[in-house]
Write the structure tokens for this entry.
Amino acid sequence: MRMPVRTVALHVFLAFQAAIAGPALAGTPFTLTSPALEEGGRLPADLKCSRDGGDGASPPLEWTGVPANTQGFALIMHHYPRDTVEGRDAPSQYWLLWNIPPETRAIPRGNPASLGQEGADKDGNFTGYTPPCSPGAAEHMYTITVFALNSAPDALPSHDSRSVDWTKMVEALKGKIVAESSLTFRN
């Protein structure tokens, strides 16, 4: 049975669009994973804060399915404390990272190469990663999101800066996000 010319033309057009659009439309979704974390799982003991017996290193992260037009990446790790509401309140930030080179597909445990620039830690005292350190028996959900960007977030400095908090980071990413993927874990 022969397919109508219109149907063949539509299939050719869609295949062409998928080829030029890159992995995001070609069927490979942009996906963040970690060899140390499972979606919804618990933070491994060695990645906890020193008070809880860990070394406080950032988790290793990997991403695949990067859209073809990606010019760099940014990353945010956060959680919403008790009595805060997503969409109304700013969350607690644990890691703000931008200007990650476009060829990057992974950040090793502890980010030993210091990829990208880092914003304020959770308390705004330093720059860099803050390990989760939930009080007592409390359990919190933490989310790490990696963003594929179509251009550099020019509103952010080209160096580590305590002046960059969650609000400034999110504002600087507006209009630049091509794709995003998140991984959530408990501690």
